[in-house]
Amino acid sequence: MDPLQAYETWKALMVSGEALAWWQEFYVKFYQAFLLENRWMQYLDGVATTLLATALALLMGVVLGVLVAVIRAAHDQQRPGRRKNPVLGLVNAVFKVYVTVIRGTPMMLQLLIWAFVVFKSRQYTMVGIFGLGINSGAYVSEIIRGGLMAVDGGQMEAGRSLGLNYVDTMRFIVVPQAFKAILPALGNEFIILLKDTSLLSVISGQELLYFAQAIGTRNYEQMFPLIGAACIYLVLVMIFTWLLGKLERRMRQSDRR
Amino acid sequence: MIDVKNLTKSFGDHLVLDDISEHINPGEKVVVIGPSGSGKSTFLRCLNLLEIPTKGTITFEGTDITDPKTDIDKVRQQMGMVFQHFNLFPNMTIRKNITLAPVRTKLMSQAEADDTATALLKRVGLEEKADAYPAQLSGGQKQRIAIVRALAMKPKVMLFDEPTSALDPEMVGEVLEVMKQLAEEGMTMVVVTHEMGFAREVGSRVLFMDGGKILEQNEPHAFFANPREPRTIEFLSKVL
Question: A255: nearest CA in chain B?
Fold first, then answer.
């Protein structure tokens, strides 16, 4: 019996209310969740969107995060006693509000607001990626700021005492050390971001969970598509965790004794 | 060379330096001693503006470095500083630690800086460590590298902030030896230290600080043989 035929026969029996063996039922549900009409390709499409969304949101988050963190650190590190730079003060205040608002409201709500209140566009996937990037930027900026603050103050002093300017000292001395220190936290943020792309489904962003739910709805059977999607997320996260571990080991080169 | 006028520094309500005026001449080896909290490190750190004076002026070779319009980076390129905790850059090899500043400030090309680094490392007997990372070195080695890193900028004056205080006793000697050599070559030096032997042997002038003031100063032999102030006598009786 060819696979499609088996599916159709058993499915017909199931619909008519007849009792099937557990493995026959499993086969029917599995087949309709993944194989019927090449549905596995929809999951792949979903994974592609999920990865794209993660990459774009991460890029946006890191750019935004570095910008916010550097401005805020520069503001906090101004020489005491001197007149503060007013532009820096204003930008710092704006960034502080940004971080507070983004971290203080649920991400799902932010996505709904971006999609249905601010943009009102049909490009839901792109709007969702934008929302994710903005959200991630707030968290990444705090991670980076923490990393910059954690570098021993003597490093900045040593750099400046040699006659290097602030930017060079940050670029060659402080930032590389901060980056190494925050890599685990940044990796964690990346993994959270990867999983949070599933929230795009609430604004019809066409990522993995969106397709899984659509297939489940069509079949009147949610378990197989949802568990399938969960397995795919798990595998993706495990792959990235492994890659991050490798990167961390490479960064530890200068620690060897 | 360095002229300090009415230097006052306070952290909040806490007065650390109280109206200090002092002059440092080219070629002098000024050793600053005193109890902890006397302001000697702060005094030293004011000289290259790592601490911003609350009041007063500091002039280096005719440039008022306390003037906000002065390019402090240019001034610092001529003043080397060595820290108690070495502050080597752990993310770079020793060679890179030494060559970064001369190359970035366009004092030398990378090739020139590499040659300078090799020559300086040879001088302190650490040429085989050029490609090591700071974490692989002992404290004494790190401090010798820190001195070399400052020297690579060809500074006119070297500031030492308790360079041997964080070292194992065994390693103090090797660092003092390098500093002695440097002194013999005629480098102008300002050294904050607890090493009285070094002060006596190498110093051309000893300043004793307490309570944010320079209480007493003299040529080292006279200073240690005949201290005048009661506070100096008390301090020396405890440390010698």
Answer: B135
Q: What is the mean pLDDT of chain A?
A: 88
The tens digit of pLDDT for each residue in B48-60 reads 999 999 999 999 9
- CA nearest to A161, candidates B116, B47, B171: B47
- Contact of A82 with chain B, judged by CB distance below 8 Å, is answered with yes
From the CA atom positions of chain A, what is the Rg in Å?
25
Please list the residues that pair with A232 across neighbouring strands: none
Question: How many C-beta neighbours within 10 Å does residue A172 have?
Answer: 19
Task: Order across the sheet with B63-64: list the strands.
Answer: B14-24, B2-11, B55-60, B63-64
ipTM value:
0.92
How crowded is residue A226: how many other Cβ atoms within 10 Å of its Cβ? Answer: 16
Strands B29-33, B205-210: pairing is: parallel
User: B161 with B146: CB under 8 angstroms?
Assistant: no
Q: Give the helix/strand (H/E) hosting B103.
A: helix B94-104
Pairing of strands B55-60, B188-192: unpaired
Per-residue pLDDT tens digits for A131-151: 999 999 999 999 999 998 889
Give residues 121 to 160 of A whose Cβ lies within 8 Å of B.
Answer: 152, 154-155, 157-160
Could you give the CA distance from residue A47 to residue A239 in angstroms, rounded to a whole number?
14
Collapsed DSSP state (helix, strand, coil) of residue B31: strand
Mapped onto helix, strand or coil, the DSSP state of residue B92 is coil
Tokens representing B222 are: 């006279």
What SS3 state is found at A252? helix
Which has the closest alpha carbon to A186: A50, A69, A95?
A69
